[in-house]
Specification:
Four copies of one chain form a homotetramer.
Chain A (H helix, E strand, L loop, with lengths): L1 E2 L10 H9 L12 H13 L6 E5 L2 H12 L4 E6 L3 H4 L4 H4 L4 E4 L8 H13 L8 E8 L10 H13 L4 E4 L3 H5 L8 H7 L2 E5 L9 E5 L8 H7 L8 H10 L4 H22 L3 E2 L7 E7 H8 L2 E2 L1 E7 L2 E7 L6 H9 L2
Parallel strand pairs in A: 1-11, 3-4, 3-5, 5-6, 6-7
Antiparallel strand pairs in A: 2-8, 7-8, 9-10, 10-13, 12-13
Helix pairs in contact in A: 1-11, 2-11, 12-14
Chain lengths: 341, 341, 341, 341
């Protein structure tokens, strides 16, 4: 059975497992204070061209969003996000569970619009009753978005400028950041991300790691006693080495970028294949996730031979589905996939 | 200066103050266990034609929404409300502060639509990823709504039926319930409210009390240890008599209905006045709040002579404003108001 | 039936009700922005000899503790309190419900000891694992304590000095503050309280008001957007006038101090009576609450003729009970009480 | 440099890494729905002799305590634990962060006493003011405790009986469960744990896994929608296989018990060595953690050559320290350690 269900169907890149094995019996201090974590941080700072970056490794995406957002908001503040943002819809209320509202903006192919953001902020501060409302205290964007789309540098700059004007941090959810940076259709680089965002995370779970996300605070703005906050959220890993070794490996010899590039190349190949087969795209995604509109019977037939993800119901006879490429995708599998269309 | 700013500009109905004075030096037990609370509850049960109703008195509207919703939801559940619902917008995130998401539906003159509610519930349970999403665990409606509008009995029945099908409680925010029940344009009575809703509150603060809201659980469904939950929210009044005496007075000789009727009659008189003056209504409200569209300069002129509420910006030169009648409104003041148009 | 159960058995002092009546039909803005609130604040500032004090009126004691503590702590911080402190035991977990641990110290007749406080703080910061523990972020004391006892100025000064050394605020729960200040056995004045504490509240509910507590931030340290935080906790009263008028009356012509003095004089009279009758005191209380040790059969006999409070079981045959005097206590009732012994 | 600092200084047992490698490229569904998770659950059920057990894999100990306790308590309930329990002291307030108080009992070598537990429960329900207090809703014990000590079967049975009488669940924190079960000085087996506890977890992080704890609900009492609750806490691992493969390996051919046995044997060997060297024990621990009292200068000298853990200050010249054996401890390292004494 072919599998294009998601980008976390396999374990980890072999180099990561190899390093975990090699370092396995070293005695290392816990909670992220080992030298692999240090080395990984240094390499990430360098890749971000951000020597002052403060970095913390967490285990998963929802956890990271929860800890970062909760630690940076004051109790009376909420986070602004696209209606389709992961924090808005698919985290089981993890943000609200910490007491914060997700203030939603319309989505445009998964992205927020800077003018609509500006209007939301202006209208909040112009409202005579703003003291009875949740303060917009942070902006959340995902890049790539939940629909695989990307912000342009110009868009990022614009959103970042608005955030600075209103003195609220811009946070980027980079669960699939590598796949965004290595798209052929982007002008956004990792140093640009570090420049425009106040905090972001470099996703590992979906880009070749067993688990792990690297949170990067770019403006010497890591909240005081962040380790304690992480611990309080149940998110502090005893064997921090597990995350340190993985990110150290990913950021050695550009492995993170290389495997991300592989995924986007595979996605383009798959996209081209779908195009040739006359398939209908739900959205024009430049990254590793491709969204097709399938007729329901066709979908059911396909499901017998290949796994892919249900995305949303389009109408009574059509469904939006997702085919994901990843660091682990094999070209031959795509060829076999195309034979099914 | 004339005042039509809101329905809580004055203190309490004189009969309430009189009773507070008369009973003032009686030694009474605390926390709502006094006999005035008991008597008030009995009268409310009777007015609701709901002999089994369990009743609890709280101090204010946001507090009531927070305590009721938090106590009736499981941690993984959120409350469904209109995008313009008080809990969605004007409670400073009080629901989220307790860990629960407000799941929004479109608003239609402040109301939710039963078909859209049904679609939300169906689509949640049909979603393959529903376990990663906030469960719709309760439905919140306000009656009258934030725009002064009212549900018909048919609409209530339909929403209630959907809630029962999905086994989630229907909660009515009755901050201005009296003004809704005493509208000339409603077929909804208090017993009907008790029949269709699983829990609702009868607002006192905006209907003649110094403070106080009576929460009514209609189906023997008051959460276990509700008093402790109230205490934990900081919402348990030591001198519960203050609420008991007020509600006992309001539900003696139909005072609550009488003063509500006065308010809606005054509102109709005001509405008729505006109509004659050719003013433009933002919405056709059958209750005590009237919403006008004012040209901005006209608005500024008026503000010098009468207080009213900013509601929302309509366009660059027009603003929606609210004129509220209440139990305390004087006919002569409306006559004087009309002279300003 | 005689009543010495508590200090909130009656309504409000008659002057308060009179003022509520006199001002009842004035149109006033909501949420504490009326001029009675302003006037009350000014009088309190003056009584505290603290011209810069920032003041906010809330409804009840647990609510006040919850809002103040939650608004002044960072998420990783807890509040230090005596094991018998109200926040530790009798608020149904209201502090924990907001996410904060109550870190307990031993109690000495209801008070914390400054050396034990110092030891707790030193030991926290000396602990190699302090990052895995809840930070002591505030000190809570009640004055009078839950046992009616009082801190001396020297003790307050010492505790305050330790708090300042560790840069954490000192918060005094003054639910019965008047009864403490007007004890014959105290050298603590209201200006001293304002000097040593960073924040405290002047209790109204138990000292002659229907409800209401005045929170005083003494060092220009009211948390930003405090009104929104209050609203989010469901603690913002729509008719703020109810609190404003009450505190304005209490702080006009020293009414608050006068009625507090009456209560402590009555308590001394009662204490003297108990002494003459050979009753055994559980604690030597200098304020309005008196604690006796009663043999259980004697207690049951008494309960038929007078109401008082169960405090705690002492041993199998004895119980600690409380007799409370208040602003409303009549000398003749004490005389009648003594006839029962 | 020798290392006896803790039982999580190394990576994972080699068999675990081997299995992770072997299964690495298999396409598996996410979030714990893969067949390795299923297989691991089945093996654990069998080892527990509890065919109905419901099992969920989480990542770390504090996370597990937080999710389990929060999911099983009602909002007005707290968890009873020893004053020295991990949840009481060393989880940065993770339980309170979810709104629940930790109600403490005295500790006796790290353990709670069943009679003191009974007294706490009786006294709560006998208290006339219990409605104003946090309800004891669950009992937390750690086994081994934070001091390495163990409950006897008799003690477990007694605590369990009390919990059942009061209808509250008994929860065992088994972060080091293997080391407890494989002690030479215990009559508690895994099936006994499953019999007496309502829920417990089998610790992996400290017993040979990279990370991972297996929560076992023994009475068909896993809270409804537990996966969503886990997700909401940011604790749901995308690649659940990482936990599944590890626990499947640990429970294949008794690996978990074998490596635990190794650790306790090493600890006994170390203990015997210390005894021969005339070292003073702080506590008589029958498991993998050994606590010594060191004179401060001796401690400083030792720290140059071996890493161990600061535990607590005993007096001005002595400190309690911990030496931990683990699945990875080498006999030769203990021999070298002894040469330092």
């Amino acid at each position: 059975m072919l599998s294009f269900e998601c980008d976390y169907s396999e374990g980890a890149h072999e180099k990561i497992l190899k390093r975990l094995l090699e370092t396995n019996m070293e005695h290392l201090p816990g909670y992220g204070s080992d030298n692999y974590c240090e080395s990984a941080k240094e390499k990430i700072r360098s890749a971000c061209n951000c020597p002052d970056a403060e970095i913390f490794f967490l285990t998963g995406g929802t956890q990271t969003n929860q800890v970062v957002i909760d630690s940076m908001l004051r109790p009376y503040e909420g986070v602004v996000a696209a209606r389709t943002g992961h924090v808005s819809v698919h985290e089981a209320g993890a943000i609200e569970a910490c007491g914060h509202k997700v203030l939603t903006l319309p989505q445009h192919q998964g992205k927020i619009d800077s003018l609509e953001l500006l209007a939301l902020l202006e209208s909040f501060w112009d409202d005579e009753n703003y003291e009875h409302m949740v303060f917009p205290g942070m902006v959340y964007i995902s890049h790539p978005t939940e629909y695989g789309t990307l912000y342009t540098e110009e868009e990022l700059k614009s959103i970042s400028g608005i955030c600075r004007k209103y003195q609220i941090p811009l946070y980027m959810d980079g669960a699939r950041l590598g796949y965004g940076l290595m798209s052929r259709h982007t002008d956004v680089t990792l140093p640009k991300v570090a420049e425009y965002c106040d905090v972001f995370y470099i996703g590992g779970t979906k880009v070749g790691a067993l688990c792990g996300e690297a949170v990067v605070f770019t403006k010497k703005n890591m909240p005081a006693h962040f380790l304690t906050i992480v611990k309080q959220h149940g998110a502090l890993m005893a064997k921090g080495r597990v995350l340190g070794v993985q990110f150290d490996t990913l950021f050695t010899d550009d492995l993170y970028f290389e495997i991300s590039k592989h995924a986007t190349t595979m996605a383009e190949y798959m996209k081209e294949g779908f195009r040739k087969k006359g398939q209908k795209f739900f959205i024009d995604s430049p990254t590793n996730q491709q969204f097709l509109i399938l007729e329901n019977n066709q979908m059911k037939e396909l499901q017998k031979k290949v796994s892919f993800s249900f995305w949303e119901k389009l109408d009574d006879s059509h469904t939006v589905v997702r085919f994901a490429a990843s660091w682990a995708t094999q070209k031959e599998d795509i060829d076999r996939l195309m034979e099914l269309f």
